[in-house]
Design a protein that fits this description.
Rossmann fold; globular; six-stranded parallel beta sheet; 2 domains; alpha/beta; 11% strand; single chain
Length: 496
Amino acid sequence: MTKEINYNKKILLNLDGYQLNVFINPLKKILSKYPIKISLHCASIEDKKILADNFSEKIKIYCYEEYVRENYSKIKPEEFDKVFNTLNLTIEEIDLAFEFYKKYYFHSIMLKSKTNIISKKRAVLYFNFYEKIFNDFDPDIILHEHTGGTGSKILWSFCKKYHRDYYFIKGLYFADKFIILNHENFLSPFFDPKNLKQFSYKEIENFKNKYLKEKNLAPFEINAKKINKININQKFKNFFKKFTIYKRNIKEINYLLNRFPPIMDGILFRLLSKIRKFIFTNFIVDKVNLNLKFITVFLQVEPELTVYSLQHKVDINKIIKNLSNSLPKDYYIYLKEHPSQHINSRFRSLSFFWKLKKFKNLKICKINQNSTDLIKNSHFLISGGGTTAFESIILNKPCINYGQNFYLNYKTLFNLKTENEIFDIVKTILNNKNNKEICLKSENENINFALNVKNSMLDGYLFLSKSLENFELIEKNEKSLFESFKEIFIKITNKN
């Protein structure tokens, strides 16, 4: 393997949001030591100011919000034709995530009659923005945040058209680790399923015990939440900062930028969330019996790249309908909402669950229902490619996966490409007594695979708050991220 970074390759790196907290210092150290050809891309003007204060003037910073403010008045919806003609994308393909926002978020009442027009304007703005970057900087490699939004779809389409490599950063399964995946095939350049290491019995047992007893594989958002500390003063500062920004903008710009009025983003959203949680807990949730025959459907966070895929999207409502119609009469469906779907009022509408309750063989679990217990006792499960899909491998349970992930070809997983495929897959699973032909005979073989997945991941917390008082952890994390980013740049600039 080549041990040096290829400095002839030009990299466009996305830095905003949570990444600003943890990536800036490690990247500054990397760029001060290695002459990497790099440009930065961020979403907001506030983020651009932070980047400009930390990086050399020689490093070009492209800011989407800045571009929108300068150009939105010039954009006409009919210009969308050039997006379609150049990238062969329809507005429906591009704006899957935005459709989710319009459906589930309270702020959709704001310009409801103009949402289709605004969707097209958003697409044109993103197209022109990335066209400018490609003309100015002409990147060979794009390293981007993990998102399923309009911008990612268009950027990925640019990369396909001009044969550029597009990677995204994602936290997976472990709070202190992350991975990069290729947008084209959702594969990790650090993971080779054909060349797996064989771990010792002691290593396998230690991993198994740590996972089952300590829940070390809890969703990274939950672990991260325990690490973060945001004080009350900072919350008020953030609120008034948002208020100031929003006040000087017109509605359409904010809508184009997916910005919420501060009062809605704060007080009203949280009030709505509490009301919704009360209704969900007391009127929608069912009692579940782990002794019955059942299949568990684990919902994924939405909007989310693995579900609102850059390549395809399946409809969870159709999946559940087809599953309900394909199961024997003595089987139940247990539906489990993703716990992170409730964070910051990112909740699914109550009507989503009311409609599902029409299926007599479906029961809706409480939010804090133990996922491991559900997996252990399920005949099989359905997952959007998150932690539960990974956990199904460790627990040796068949899993129908409707999202995207880099280990989709593993023996216990069935990758669902269309909703109608579920009939044949369910039949295949149910016709195999005790799943012996589907699952591996050795549990240790599964855990060995999981350990290989863990070892392919890179060291570093992606989610650490600025207000975190554990300076030792911050310093350690910066060192880890420095080494991880060095590995990343070596790997992606020397792709065969």
